[in-house]
Amino acid sequence: MVVKYKSRLQWIDALRGIAAIMVAILHLWLFMKQEMIDTHTKTSEVLSVFISGFFDFGKIGVVVFFLISGYVIPYSLYKASNKKFLISRFFRLYPAYWISILCFCLVSGIPAIKSLLINATMFQKFVGIEDLVGVYWTLQIELIFYISCLILHRFNLLNNDKFIVKLFYGLLFSGLIMATFRYKLELKLPVALLLGLAIMFLGMLWRKSTLEKSLYVNAKVFRQLIIILIIVLIPLTLLAYSKNFGNNEVWYRYLISYLTALLLFKLFSHYKSPSRFLTYLGSISYSMYLLHPIVGIDLPVKLFTQQYCNSHKFLFVALFWIFSLTASSICYYLIEKPCIRLGKRLSGLNITEKVVSTI
Q: Rounded to two decimals, what is the model's pTM?
């Protein structure tokens, strides 16, 4: 059963804002930890454990984004053809993404033309080209999820609850198998891709069990999904992330990040009337996610030099938030919002209907 709705899910907006801020906090902290502060002080040790040691704000934020995508994205396909969906998604994702690439070039210089052009497609990792900005990697998983939804929609499977449950389990246990090979062969296999897709389809099932009141994915079935996910996550993270492949992998940090993201999503689903500030952060969260490493970290260092920032740490932190929030707001109002409306107009969707989008 599909529920048509006109009003926004405000708790989703608020949660998107929180997720973007958590990712930004992690990147700010990692930069300061590497470049600016004494990591052996009591305060820095406590902050390090809280932000990037025991917990990992960035991973928590990303998993929350994946859950939101699953909760939201498939349902825009129910009222649109694949063509309309593609047009709408293109204008939602690419204009702000290209602005972030432009900002990168202005702040850090123009990279190799091949890298620049391929990064502009958002498919760079699929052809072995590095991301110009580290946060881009999650967008490629989002694209695979969109393509998966389009294929499922084409074959009338997207609203087949039994099939989606089987798909979730298939992705989850395929991730466990890949994690085993990653551990045994000591190869950096993309476990995060399969696990990320599983989390997105879990978000879809979460909505089916609550907002959509699915007859098949009832509360009991959904509890089973969550329990099995948690059980599988323990060996999966242990096998996939107990060996460091260059990203400071620690298996329990991954496990805790996924569990914390699930808990946050559950808590916010009961938070029906969030503050205007949180919903505003949600509206600019995509631009915030894309721009904060460039305008929040690279730009102040470029303008004031690394040595000056080292000597004025509080000023640097203030500039990080001022630059990031200002640039994100400008990008949202001048680029994102008009392009979203244009995409809806070109795709024939109702412009006045409020639809929750992903990051």
A: 0.92
